[in-house]
Amino acid sequence: MKASKLLLVSALAAASLSAYAGQEPKTIIYGGEIYSANPKDPHPQAIGIEGNKVVAVGRYQDVLKQLGEGAKRLDLKGNYLMPGLIDSHAHVAYAGFQSVTLAFPDNMKDAATIRKFVDDNKNNPLRDLNGIQFYSNLSLDYWDHIDLLASVFNAPEYQNIPVVLAGMDAHTGWANQAMLNKAKLTEDKLAADAGIKAGTGLTPDGKINGFVAEGAWDYVLSAIPPVDDHKIASGIIAGAKVMNGFGITAWMDPISNVRPLAPVFNAHPGRHDVGLLPAYTELAQQDKLNAHVTGLALVNIHSTPAAIDDVVALREQFSHTPDVRLAGIKIFQDGVIEYPAQTAKLSESYLNRPGYSGDNTLDKAQYCQLIAKADAEHLIAHFHAIGDRAVSEALDGIACARKQNGNSGVMHSITHLEVVSPQSLPRFQQLNVAASMQLLWAGKDASSTTLIDGKVPAPLLKDLYPAGALYSHHALIAGASDWPVSSPNPMLAIYTAVTRMGELGELPPDSEKISRAAMLQAYTLNAAKVIGRDKEIGSIAPGKSADFALFDRNLEKVSIEQLRDAKVVWTMFEGKQIYHAE
Q1: How many CA atoms, within 13 angstroms, populate the side-chain half-sphere of residue 114?
Q2: CATH of the domain at 33
Q3: How far is CA 226 from CA 130, 183, 232, 513, in A?
């Protein structure tokens, strides 16, 4: 009898310990200023988390009562807590990959300086890419000095050494003669392929000068051996670490089915082109990602609707890991507006290229069916559009989808939006289309002045990056960086959106400025809606992921200059601190 009782007690004790061991840890977060991004309770006193989820938000005593006295306490010590920030358009894997390449410094104005830089790095392993000298992140200013680049990298000692210089915009580059030979980019090739010819720079006597944009840049990239999964994973880890350091815990990677340095502009990826997706998925499964990632599959603008079947197949393959999912498509509606590429689609001709306003070969009927099929499959359609004609085309495609499918409930989005016509502004709200904007670009700098002044018609330059006009027309505006094209630091983008100040001063007009309150929403709940995860993240509410960014100052109350310099104290992802400032 005693033995039976002993066995019963032991069994009950074991069951009790097992139940206790299965409980998720509970934490009460309090003691600071909290911004929830939830309009119903914007500034709660405390947050209760259990495991990786928020379970209580509100008054401290109420949260304490719900979680119990045994919960751990996390004192914010007067700092400012907000939801984990979200970037609605960032090439994190490619940006991280760039960290294992050699960046080309700005403002090297003579051959001797460039030669010294090259010589100083002759043993730097970061510049070697399978036998090619590769330099990344070139300022677009260098495209005004192609003769300078040629004087160095086409010198006799480079006769058999291929060199590639990648522009910071990811749309342009330069290749020396040895690399042009390796890629078989010749005058005969230009004569046979009008698309490549359009993106190739020529000397006054018709010779290739090495500058390449978009389709021609693709052609050069196709001669570079593919980047392997291990290097991609290393790039993702490096990129995620940077994002976490800025308080960012989620992003949309807009070209997830293509590897770094693979062709994108004229590419037609299929269901077997998996790009970054295996590396992203494996890292998430190993708990090494520290972010929620929504991937998009690149689809060529000239594709037939059958291309969507390939994307659906990829979605089935890569949407079983909660933190990584393929959720939509990315379309290059146009290119870039800056000289010398000038591939953005405008409603008027470029001043220095009469009769040319960007590509005009779109089969609009086929394009309509492409977007309608994506919408019918509940895929996010995300459009790169710089010029006003490109924005209008993207909106037309979505209008076609809405007409055919009714309201699918999918929020589509257009990114960049440098030039937007007045006629397009109200269509964003009408069609449920979000504006994913890189408002760090909305200040006065070379890209918004010298590289377009006198080349783009003046009426189109009056309201660059029209955040104020879009906001006043009730468009949902989401924060984005396009990293590595520009810094992923949301504080710099918020500062520029509010002030329109850049390195050359203030970019007019005043009416396109947007409030910091709107920008805080842009980097939280609005961005969550754009990446299709607003039920999971984007605000601090019960049931959502325990993702937070703690800042060293109140972002709602300090001066805008102080906001610009705000620092992250720590970042939490799914209930775990993944970054802590030194």
Answers
A1: 22
A2: 2.30.40.10
A3: 10, 14, 10, 43
- Among 259, 261, 168, 82, smallest CA distance to 481 is for 168
> In this structure, are strands 46-50 and 26-30 parallel, antiparallel, or unpaired?
antiparallel
Peptide bond connecting 457 to the previous residue in cis, omega within 30 degrees of 0 = no
Helices (H), 377-489: 388-405, 425-430, 467-472
For 471, the 3-state DSSP assignment is helix
User: What's the domain count of the chain?
Assistant: 1
Three-state DSSP state, 416: strand
- Three-state DSSP state, 331: strand
Pair type for strands 72-75 and 26-30 = parallel
Q: What is the 3-state secondary structure (H, E, C) of 193-259?
A: CHHHHHCEEECCCCCEEEEEECHHHHHHHCCCCCCCHHHHHHHHHHHHHHHHHCCEEEEEECCCCCC
Residue 2: which pLDDT band, with cuts at 50, 70 and 90? very low
């257009």: which residue's tokens? Answer: 414
Is pLDDT above 50 for 60?
Answer: yes
Separation between Cα atoms, residue 139 and residue 552, nearest integer Å: 33
Q: Closest Cα to residue 172, out of 129, 141, 132? A: 141
Is 26 part of a structural domain of the chain? Answer: yes
In a domain, 424, yes or no: no
Helices within 1-75 (DSSP H only): 2-22, 60-67
DSSP 573: E
Query: What pTM did the predictor assign?
Result: 0.91
425-430 own/partner pairs: CB under 8 Å, 24+ apart:
425/466, 425/469, 425/470, 425/473, 425/475, 426/473, 427/395, 427/399, 428/395, 428/470, 428/473, 428/474, 428/475, 428/476, 429/473, 429/474, 429/475, 429/476
Q: Look at residue 323 and tell me if it is in a domain.
A: no
pLDDT in tens, 213-266: 999 999 999 999 898 999 999 999 999 999 999 999 999 999 999 999 999 998
pLDDT in tens, 6-56: 444 344 344 333 333 447 899 999 999 999 999 999 999 999 999 999 999
Task: Give the tens place of pLDDT for each residue, 442-478.
Answer: 999 999 999 999 999 999 999 999 999 999 999 999 9
- In this structure, which amino acid lies at residue 66? Q
pLDDT for residue 582:
85
Residue 38 lies in a domain: yes
With the C-alpha atoms ordered 485, 96, 379, 490, is the resulting torsion angle positive or negative? negative
C-beta of residue 541 within 8 angstroms of C-beta of residue 40: no
Domain that holds residue 8: 2-78
Mean pLDDT calculated for residue range 419-433? 98
Rg (CA), the chain: 26
